[in-house]
Amino acid sequence: MTEAFWVNGELRDQVSVSDRGLQYGDGVFETLPVKHGQIALLAYHLDRLYAGCERLAINAPSREKLQSELLSAACGEQHAILKLLITRGVGGRGYRPPPDSETTRILTRHPWPDHPSAWSGVGIQLRVCSTRLGHNSRLAGLKHLNRLEQVLARAEWSEREPWQEGLMLDEEGAVIEGTMTNVFVCMADGRRITSELSRCGVAGVMRRHLLERAVEAGEPVQEAQLSLKELQAAREVFVCNSLIGIWPVRRLDNQEYAVGDWTRRMQHWAREAGIGTD
Amino acid sequence: MTEAFWVNGELRDQVSVSDRGLQYGDGVFETLPVKHGQIALLAYHLDRLYAGCERLAINAPSREKLQSELLSAACGEQHAILKLLITRGVGGRGYRPPPDSETTRILTRHPWPDHPSAWSGVGIQLRVCSTRLGHNSRLAGLKHLNRLEQVLARAEWSEREPWQEGLMLDEEGAVIEGTMTNVFVCMADGRRITSELSRCGVAGVMRRHLLERAVEAGEPVQEAQLSLKELQAAREVFVCNSLIGIWPVRRLDNQEYAVGDWTRRMQHWAREAGIGTD
Asked: Is the pLDDT reported for residue A1 higher than 60?
């Protein structure tokens, strides 16, 4: 893997200090897994990116252009990560978005982060973060560049501590997501739930894949409000994203969970999409 | 005025695409007014910047260094704006802040934005934005780089429309601030209020100056919850920041306000600090 950086299609690792991505976090991003030169769920990543640009009224580059740049950057790579940022570009006095700014696209390639295979196998330990997610329905679901809440939450524990992921609640104490993952649970009565994300949270690409796959399999997962109490009482819990696939949760504070059939079935569906340990 | 850009003290207008300021909005900023080579309320700007760095656990450069760089950039300038960004710098895998990152400091100098003097004189027209501010007590008050809410709010109207500033409410409908200003009101019963900012909003430098000056003058302003109804029933309303000073509000939707003695006294105090039309 060669680390590499492109700005607007040219090999460069610098951007203007006036870029609104830096000035205001005025943009969106995607982090994509590369395996054997391919990008799993690429169409879903692009769908979310375009939905974000549309919501923020950013003039996105054409889908064909982005797709071809992403695939060139992936070409020949055995295992890597691509990160694509789209910002509103340079310009505008103050917060007002200039009507005619030229979007900046920043593409970077990084080594694959090797997580212990046990995290997919026997599962991880989850902690509850004290940093909460604020509500903003206009930004909810998007993977935008305003990520201080996640930075603060991830700073709450170090890598020497026993947790692999942190759970984030919203202002009102509802369970929303992990710092970099979405959360799925199967309750003792068989109900399958993932947190609804109409007021905050990032609607993950792996989350979408699993929701769709679960409908096809006739065992749909409900998008609903989820309380910490419900999570603690759940039979199975896992977190997921489009890089790691699915990590079963074996422990949350003093609560232990078994890794059950439902989680294993979900992992199978993630692998079908090319994501997660084979 | 010569526009100029410095990164870490060197004349440069580019930063690394890996800077966490761009990647996550992981940093804080200040916008400072320069008049005749001087920066009004410089100490208050630095106080807020350091409070922000402390809250985000960013290793801020020394106060002496920042102060001397700001004053050099101001030196000889008749009328200009400085903008200073401090980011956590490059590094870290994902959201987790690296323990030893080197802070990036970005200083830029821009022309003074000439607003019509009538806005300070007869006042402005304010609109109510539909974009709401989400609550996050850990970020409230700070001037951090996650500013999408302000960008969306400011995009709600164009410069051809009759409004000069937009009012932002929080999730629950409380009046918090303007897109780039704080709000002060004097009620019919004489109570003087500015919105309390414990859950969202930016605690402005001019706001602090006025709050302190009002106490000295024996007519303190209360930091309190403020409803839209109270604002509509107010006798005097103004918005303020450390660049424009104070703009009286003469109209909010169909509600008209007089520009009264209290607002004029406040404008006098702003001018005492070197801010606002002479």
From this structure: yes
Q: Which of A30, A165, A177, A236 is catalytic?
A: A177
Which architecture, in CATH terms, is B118-272? Alpha-Beta Barrel (3.20)
A96 contacts B129 by C-beta, under 8 angstroms:
no
Residue intervals in chain A for CATH 3.20.10.10: 118-272
B114 pLDDT above the threshold of 90: no
What pLDDT is recorded for position B92? 74
The 10s digit of each residue's pLDDT in A197-207 is 999 999 999 99
Percent helix, strand and coil across chain B, each rounded to 5?
25, 30, 40
Please tell me the distance in Å from B250's CA to the nearest CA on chain A: 22
Percent of chain A with pLDDT over 90: 94
Q: Select the residue from A22, A54, A147 to test the B interface by mutation, using most B Cβ atoms within 10 A.
A: A22
Rounded-to-integer distance, Cα B161 and Cα B142, Å? 30
**Does the domain spanning A4-111 belong to CATH 3.40.50.410?**
no
Q: What is the pLDDT of residue A91?
A: 86
> Both tokens of residue A224?
């609903």
Asked if residue B277 has pLDDT above 80, the reply is: no
Neighboring chain A residues of B131 at a CB cutoff of 8 Å: 138
pTM of the model: 0.97
CB pair distance less than 8 Å for B26 and A131 = no
Q: Report how far residue B70's alpha carbon sits from residue B64's, in angstroms, rounded to the nearest whole number.
A: 10
pLDDT at A278 over 70: no
What residues of A are in contact with residue B154 (Cβ under 8 Å)? Answer: 94-97
**Which residues make up the CATH 3.30.470.10 domain(s) of chain B?**
4-111
**Under a CB-based contact definition with an 8 Å cutoff, are residues B74 and B61 in contact?**
no
Active-site residues of B: which are they? 31, 143, 177
Phi, psi of B242 (to 5 degrees): -85, 0
Residues recorded for chain B: 278
Q: What mean pLDDT is reported for chain B? A: 96
Q: Residues A139-144: what's their mean pLDDT?
A: 98
Distances (CA, A) of B82 to A18, A108, A205, B79, B144: 13, 31, 41, 10, 16
